[in-house]
Amino acid sequence: MTRPDFEPATARSYDALSAGHLDIISSDPSDRAHLELFAAAVLHAPGPVADVGCGAGRLTAVLAELGLDAFGVDLSPALIAIARAANPHLRFEVGSMFDLDIPDGSLAGLLACYSIIHVPWELRPAVFEEFRRVLRPGGVLMLAYQVGSDAKHRDSHDGLELDVTWYRQQPGELAGLLREAGFQVSHEAVRPAREGELTPHGHLLATAGGRPQEHDRGDLADE
User: Fold this and answer.
1) DSSP 8-state secondary structure symbol assigned to residue 222
2) Distance of CA 113 to the CA centre of its chain
3) Span 192-212, pLDDT tens digits
């Protein structure tokens, strides 16, 4: 599969931010209740759990504390190095959510916490198809995202050169895309923006149904 054009630039941006700027890129574990909901759903039929877009591994460690067999995947080699150093007992891998190095139907759960926010809207179906591929029937998916309809691009931060875009998400649209990919949506929640946040934040929990009809995944560059 051809790697989407935005991924190398996004990885380089997070590599740059990893040096002294973890305060703006580390996942916020403050919405722990939703992580506990996700963990409880997975533990009904336990198995491996992928934290996709794990960053510096903070939430991967929380998932492990909640009893899950969790490992992390992220585009940024620098963030993966930080995650490995901070959590030597856990596994972290550099990888793309468009082409996960995970066997079909092998995961009990998949967390994507503020990681689909960099995926162009038109490429979300390919991501959700890949999530469905690696989850076993009944496997649990949780998404966390910023609510809205706009996109924000940043080309610098504190003197660093960046090339990264944030895409807001509409809950109903996400739920529809997941159903099309073979998921059953079981929980949707949106909370108001907190102090320092620009948008409301959403969480969505879904389970993988039976194997969906096979599609020609093709070349993303041609989509």
Assistant:
1) G
2) 5
3) 888 878 889 999 999 998 654
**How is residue 168 written in tokens?**
């807001």
CA dihedral 127, 84, 36, 209 (to 10 degrees): 30
Please give the C-alpha separations between residue 111 and each of 34, 183, 185, in angstroms, as whole numbers.
11, 14, 14
In the chain, what is the straight-line distance between the N-terminal and C-terminal CA atoms, in Å?
Answer: 12
Which SS3 state, helix, strand or coil, does residue 23 take? Answer: helix
Question: Residue 103 phi/psi, 5° resolution?
Answer: -65, 155
What is the spatial distance between Cα 141 and Cα 115, in angstroms, rounded to a whole number? Answer: 13
Asked whether 213 and 185 are in contact (CB, 8 A), the reply is: no
- Pick from 118, 159, 135: nearest CA to 25: 118
**Six-digit token string for 50:** 């992928």
Distance of CA 212 to the CA centre of its chain: 21
CA–CA separation, 99 and 112 (whole Å):
14
Distance CA 127, CA 96 (A): 10
pLDDT digits (tens, 9 = 90+) for 47-74: 999 999 999 999 999 999 999 999 999 9
SS3 10: helix
pLDDT number for residue 215: 38
- CA 165, 219, 110, 132 torsion: positive or negative? positive
Global confidence as pTM: 0.89
